[in-house]
Amino acid sequence: MVTDALRKNNIDFWLDGGTLLGAFRNGEMIPHDLDMDLAVFGDENLQKAGKVLEEIKPDGYTLRYNGF
């Protein structure tokens, strides 16, 4: 659902952190990893992604930004 919403809004993203590790190593989420790590490139995409993800937040998702 999250990736569908990002794709629908033409936001380029990639897996990051533990989500990327699980996909590469296990071919799926790491069993004890309870979050999804996604990254986008640039402030414009980050703002667009934030708006899209806030829209689906009522469906039980929470959103946290980790910027540098």
Task: Describe the structure concisely for a colleague.
With 68 residues, the protein is mostly helical. The chain is built from 3 helices and 2 strands; from the N terminus they run αβαβα.
Compute the average pLDDT.
Answer: 86
Distance N terminus to C terminus? Answer: 26 Å
Main β sheet profile: 2 strands, antiparallel
The number of E-state strands comes to 2
Poorly predicted runs are none
Structural class: mainly alpha
Give me the strand/helix succession.
HEHEH
Quaternary organization: single chain
Biggest sheet strand line-up: 1-2
3D shape: globular
- CA-atom Rg in angstroms: 12 Å
The amount of beta strand, in percent, is 5-15%
DSSP helical segment count: 3
Secondary structure: helix percent: 40-55%
Question: Any overview of this molecule?
Answer:
The protein contains 3 helices and 2 strands, in the order αβαβα. It is globular, with a radius of gyration of 12 Å. The chain has helices spanning 2-8, 17-25, 43-56, and strands spanning 14-15, 38-39. The protein has 68 residues and is mainly alpha-helical. Helices cover 44% and strands 6% of the residues. The model has no long low-confidence stretch (mean pLDDT 86). A two-stranded antiparallel ribbon has the order 1-2. The protein has a domain at 2-47.
